[in-house]
């Protein structure tokens, strides 16, 4: 009897540890500023409904045709990346914000906050700047898809995207009870409600968002405008790849 109780206790402890560990696997708040903002870049700030201040930035060239709202990955400081985005897309207005607890943004990161804040930011961008495209990388692709499922946008670029956290976990760890999965990020559900054209970029050698997950997501997309599987690119390399950038520029510039 004592032995059985010990086993049950041990399993409960392991489940609790696994449940808490997921937060650190999904979210990785960072802050780094290696260089000053470009001359055409301006810091932004928005306040959420519950009073949390989020840090953002806009790159505004003198002449541009379109604007893109970007949601970055789990280990990115969005503001710190603006100079790189400006270099890659010099003729496009770029707007991006840090998630809660990332960069100088306050609050605590969570799936609910990612989606709620993403939609709030998008609504403010449309109100103050006008229509826009969405670009989401990695976990940010789920946020972008969620936003696009809730409001009209000109188009959606999903880079290093996956169908859901549950599907990723299943492929990596095998069968896992859904009850112990803390997060969903079910991009596959959101893309079925998006009317705007979707451009999906995947890598056959992506070690985070596996190509099988990208293919599964592709099958759920309601309005697929473009899909490509690239070779020999890691998860992080995909965002900056010349072929990805060139295709996006064809659309927005």
UniProtKB/TrEMBL annotation:
<keyword id="KW-0378">Hydrolase</keyword>
<protein>
    <submittedName>
        <fullName>Alpha/beta hydrolase</fullName>
    </submittedName>
</protein>
<dbReference type="GO" id="GO:0016787">
    <property type="term" value="F:hydrolase activity"/>
</dbReference>
<dbReference type="InterPro" id="IPR029058">
    <property type="entry name" value="AB_hydrolase_fold"/>
</dbReference>
């Amino acid at each position: 009897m004592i032995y059985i109780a010990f086993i049950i206790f041990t399993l409960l402890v392991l489940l609790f540890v696994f449940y808490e560990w997921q937060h650190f696997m999904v979210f990785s708040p960072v802050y780094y500023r290696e260089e000053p903002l470009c001359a055409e870049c301006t810091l932004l700030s928005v306040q959420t409904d519950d009073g949390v201040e989020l840090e953002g930035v806009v790159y505004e060239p003198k002449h541009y045709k379109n604007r893109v709202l970007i949601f970055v990955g789990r280990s990115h400081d969005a503001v710190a990346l603006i100079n790189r985005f400006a270099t890659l897309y010099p003729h496009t207005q770029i707007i991006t914000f840090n998630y809660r607890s990332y960069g100088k943004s306050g609050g605590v990161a969570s799936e609910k906050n990612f989606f709620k804040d993403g939609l709030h930011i998008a609504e403010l961008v449309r109100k103050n700047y006008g229509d826009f495209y969405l670009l989401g990388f990695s976990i940010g692709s789920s946020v972008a898809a969620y936003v696009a499922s809730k409001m009209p946008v000109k188009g959606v670029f999903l880079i290093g995207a996956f169908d859901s956290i549950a599907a990723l976990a299943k492929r990596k760890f095998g069968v896992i009870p859904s009850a112990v999965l803390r997060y969903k990020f079910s991009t596959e559900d959101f893309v079925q409600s998006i009317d705007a054209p979707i451009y999906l970029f995947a890598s056959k050698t992506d070690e985070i968002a596996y190509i099988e997950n990208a293919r599964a997501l592709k099958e759920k997309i309601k309005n697929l405008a473009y899909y490509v599987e690239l070779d020999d690119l890691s998860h992080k390399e995909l965002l900056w790849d010349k072929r990805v950038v060139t295709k996006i520029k064809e659309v927005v510039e």
